[in-house]
Structures are given as structure tokens and as C-alpha cells.
């Protein structure tokens, strides 16, 4: 992605970017429903936008990204968050070191999402939440291969089920939800967005929540 950290993060402060971010984070937080103070690893954190939002929500957050420039910007924007250089396919952390793991539109740029998912599952004690670009959406028709979406992979529910099977993750309760059905983000779109239930998986942002089943 050929874009400066400043320009990338600025988009979240535009009217449309703020609305989309609020919709996405609200859905992820609702799915995860984390315990205050719990530890979360945000993989592919980029400039740390969602990392900071999880931190503001009361979690002890760690960010990881392969791009040192993105991480340098992220460190400038926040205190109390540890950031590490690393890749999703080989996380430099112990098994179940974190309560939760997240990867928000970062697996879309990973060559091997199965390995990345295995790693996220390995380091997370309770569960994982993913934010993916949904191939079954209006956003895909409008933006695939263009701008910040150039080089991104677009996935759907069937792809995720296939990843889980290949990764050998069988002990997970899995929930799917989506949002951003009308990516233009205008006043009418925002009203209509609230009328569509997240269980309809046609939104541009596909959220996946994996919960580990604990056995006594």
C-alpha cells in the first residue's frame, strides 16, 4: 500500500471515514464483548487507529505490524500501548499470552491467512475477532483493486470456514456479522444502514468472532 501513515490515518478523521470506523468498531466491540482490563493483541495494526480505540475501551492492548513507519506514527499518537514489528504468520509471543486477538482488514493483505489465523488462535486464550473485506458487497463492486484497496484480497463466509478447517480450529464457536451496506456514507445511507440487521452478510465489512470453548 503506497500511502503515508499520516494520509492513511487522516482518512479516519473525515466525515465518511469516521462514520465507517464507528460502524466497524462498534460491531467488533459488540461481538468481542471483552472484559475490562483484558489483554488484546491487534495484528496488522498499521497506524494504530483501532488499537487506540480498544485501548480507550479499557483493554490492555499490544499492536503488531510489519511496517516500521506505520508503527512509528502509531507510537506518536498514543501512550500506554506497546508496539512490535512482526508478521501475522509468525507472531513473536507465547501460547495464550493474550486474552484476545484481533486482525482488522489486515488479513486481507496476508499471503497465507490460514497460517495467520493459526497464529492468532495460538496466542489468544479466549477468542479472536477479525474484520475482513467482504466479496459479497457493494463496496467490492465499487472499490476492488482501486486506491487503498489495491492488492487487497476480498473474502466471504465460505472462505473463513475453509480457513478454519485447514487451520484445524475445530473448538471454536463462530459468529459472522457485517456492516457498511451503503459505503457512500451519505445521510440517506446512514439511516438505511441502521435498518439492516448485521446478520445479513452483504456489508462491505465482514466481522468474524471466534470463541474458544473451555472444557472442565
From TrEMBL:
GO biological process: methylation
InterPro entries hit by this protein: Methyltransf_11, SAM-dependent_MTases_sf
Pfam families, per the entry: Methyltransf_11
Residue span(s) of domain Methyltransferase type: 41-127
Superkingdom: Bacteria
Keyword annotations: Methyltransferase, Transferase
Gene3D superfamilies in the record: Vaccinia Virus protein VP39
Gene Ontology molecular function: S-adenosylmethionine-dependent methyltransferase activity
Name of the protein: Methyltransferase family protein
Organism: Thiohalophilus thiocyanatoxydans
Upper lineage: Bacteria, Pseudomonadati, Pseudomonadota, Gammaproteobacteria, Thiohalomonadales
Amino acid at each position: 500500500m503506497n500511502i503515508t501513515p499520516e494520509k492513511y490515518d487522516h482518512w479516519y478523521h473525515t466525515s465518511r471515514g469516521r462514520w465507517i470506523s464507528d460502524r466497524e468498531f462498534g460491531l467488533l466491540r459488540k461481538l468481542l464483548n471483552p472484559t475490562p482490563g483484558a489483554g488484546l493483541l491487534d495484528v496488522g495494526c498499521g497506524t494504530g487507529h483501532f488499537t487506540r480505540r480498544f485501548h480507550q475501551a479499557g483493554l490492555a492492548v499490544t499492536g503488531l505490524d510489519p511496517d516500521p513507519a506505520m508503527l512509528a506514527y502509531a507510537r506518536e499518537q498514543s501512550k500506554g500501548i506497546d508496539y512490535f514489528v512482526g508478521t501475522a504468520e509468525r507472531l513473536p509471543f507465547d501460547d495464550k499470552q493474550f486474552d484476545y486477538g484481533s486482525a482488522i482488514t489486515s488479513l486481507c493483505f496476508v499471503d497465507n491467512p490460514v497460517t495467520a489465523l493459526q497464529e492468532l488462535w495460538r496466542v489468544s486464550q479466549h477468542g479472536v475477532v477479525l474484520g475482513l473485506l467482504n466479496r459479497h458487497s457493494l463496496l467490492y463492486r465499487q472499490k476492488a483493486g482501486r486506491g487503498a484497496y489495491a492488492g487487497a484480497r476480498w473474502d466471504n463466509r465460505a472462505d473463513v470456514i475453509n480457513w478454519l478447517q485447514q487451520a484445524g480450529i475445530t473448538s471454536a464457536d463462530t459468529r459472522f456479522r457485517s456492516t457498511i451496506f451503503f459505503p457512500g456514507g451519505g445521510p440517506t445511507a446512514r439511516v438505511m444502514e441502521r435498518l439492516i440487521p448485521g446478520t445479513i452478510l452483504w456489508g462491505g465489512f465482514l466481522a468474524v468472532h471466534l470463541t474458544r470453548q473451555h472444557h472442565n
